[in-house]
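Field: sequence (string)
Field: structure_tokens (string)

Example rows 1 and 2, in order.
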Amino acid sequence: MKRLLAFVLIFIVCGGESESLNSPVTTEKEITTTTEVEKEKLQETEPDSEIISALKNASEEAKKCINDRWPNGVESVLGGYIPGENETELIYNCLDSSGDETFELEKKGRDEQWRARWEGKCEGTGPVMFANSPMKIEEINVLLPYGQIVGGHITPIDHMYFYSLPVGRYTYEVRAIQDAFIFNIEIREVSVESNQTQEPDFRLDMVHTCTFGSYFDLLTKLSPELEKKWEENRNENGDFLGAYVKAGELIGYVGNQSLDFGVYNYDEPLYFINPEAYESVEPWKIYTHDPFPYFPENIRNQLLNKMVRKSEPRAGRIDYDVDGTLSGNWFEVGTNFYEGVNKNKYFEGHFSLSLNDIDPNYWQIGIGFLDVYENVFVIQGNPLIPTEISVDSGKQIYELYSFEIYVENNPSKNWFREAHDENDIFGVRLAGKKGFVMLELIEEQLLQLEVFLNVEKDSINEFTDNSRVYER
């Protein structure tokens, strides 16, 4: 809808094609090139577009939100500059999040857009039993649960990891766990975290009924049959129209990296304080669902024997939002929630506090603006746990420790490269103190944060200009 409105705006103001569409204005000097006569003529001959009218009536909060992300953006649009699609999206996001009563936009939510990709191509509702494991049981070394935070995943991860021993990039088969309609296939040739070129891998999204689906990622190659369907089944714009697969059908290969796997029940959303925060990028996230109950008992038990997490739920969890406390997911104010403002580093504005996915006796913290390989820690040193800290608790200082997963009953084992033993007991061990983080819940949905590295705790008293403010 926003894209349509942007097109309508451009068509009305320009009367058709214009060089300005391919030459976006970026400087104050360029912004002022529209003459006052031209502005008056436009205002006399055309009624205010919806976006112009909304900006004229926007609150100061909404205008500040826009200008924080796009300096002089409000003034430039009101001055005659025609915003591009990304700029229009930014404006609407700020107007939406500000709660302006004067701004009402009928739009089709991303959640609805996501579901529309399989509407009319699925049958039935509710969960189904799976027919088989995604990989041969004997080829799976270990399973890591939902809820890990690592690298660019600053909020708890909504998929688990199937790891095999690293013996070749195309070694292991991946098969459909049940009859499915694959409605999305994406190829990734640039690393999300390093932004460097990589060997291609593939993401597959599918549904088994109209409300129950699953997901595979990091396939290193599609099966020849699925690749053919992917290439041939497209519309005139080149968009993939989807493909049906049967339970047990070979759909691809994986090796030398994990197979990412998630299950989503679109009838049962998890509790997140602001579920709309995820819609623009990951509309499936809030529907993450435990897959183990849907595997036949013999397969389920064999998979659970590979799972390194022994606490219930064995699949792990991702929903740690507790209203009025520190616990859960946060987004830096002015960074457009989960989507971020920099597509290549969308996670920079993310922050989370959750229970460790392997050992829930530890609280883990993810801080998106730090170096991508040194941004996840276990917190220590404060008697109050995140779920007990409220607005009245004041400033809290935690020690930040790096940590690693290890086998408690065989500490020297390289569990990633050595064969899994059903008797292995996995745990978390601290690997060194890295610094401190100061946190304060200044309102129920507003958090102030600052990281202090290479300093003594006694020197930390107040927030400095380096602190950041986060919201839900």
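Row 2 begins here:
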Amino acid sequence: MVFFTFAAGIALLVGGAELLVRGASRLAAALGVTPLVIGLTVVAFGTSAPELAVSVKAALAGQSSIAVGNVVGSNIFNVLFILGVSALVAPLVVARQLIRLDVPLMIFLSVLLLVLGLDGSIGRWDGALLSAGMLAYVAFLYFESRREHLNQREPGEPPPPSGRAALLGNVVLAIGGLLLLVVGSRLLVDSAVTTARALGVSDLVIGLTIIAAGTSLPEVVTSVMASIKGERDIAVGNVVGSNIFNIMAVLGAAGLAAPSGLEVTGAALRFDIPVMIAVALACLPIGFTGGVIARWEGALLLGYYVAYTAYLVLAAGQQESAVLLRSGLLYFAAPLTAMTLVVLSAQQALRGRAEARG
């Protein structure tokens, strides 16, 4: 029965996100914004709606570890798994705007989450700060994209059509998707808590793994399909935008909803949030290596996600090998990868300068 409830929750979340994204994407297209901005906002926010529903529900129920673990785990999953799989399907071109603005913002927010959590909780003032930042970010993207679109449009070109009937239909789709998300999140959280208690696994680990992966399924489907169809701005923008949305909107709303704030455990501060920061930092040099996330880089990201998940499973079972795996990731694999990416980025920069002089 628990498995059926969990599966039903996932199905409703994915179905709801699909309806939400479909309706919202058409609304955004009518506003005349770029595919990258659609990926960073409408698609990213729509596919992150499950995280929002699950984390707010968990916060109201007093299950802070699930709310925080869901966001941190989803951000790790988004970069390592989704970008990894999408890059394996087809190398992903990274737009300059992502490297200049959105990826640095994602890194800043990841570090900010660590700073805000050092006192042991994400309180209502923290939630208000994050929520206000989200509104400012969306407003900036919208007005900047509109300005760029107006500059690029030919004189006399008519605006995109937006009939009243079509507009109403898309609004209904989005609202229907939101309703499915609310019901699905309730089923998912209830079944996950039951599973955690039955297996003796902490809420944090459940949030970091099962719920994080389950609520990120819309991002998986969206980014992989966008990669297959050649819409690579949407594939990468979806992941980066989802991570930004998760920290500012999801944790912001959950922090405002939680009666006594969201508890941030010592385990999350010592390991999981630093891993999230490291994963965000990895996006910057990857973006510099030719402006493309190559297949080998995708395989590397996917391999790290497998190792991270293996560590969580071993640590939950209190296996000694978990300590060895953690040490290997922190002191060998991660520094070696960072050094490799920095060297490749430096080589790319030197090559670019040489071409500019030639």
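free_text_note (row 2): The chain is about 85% helix and 0% strand.
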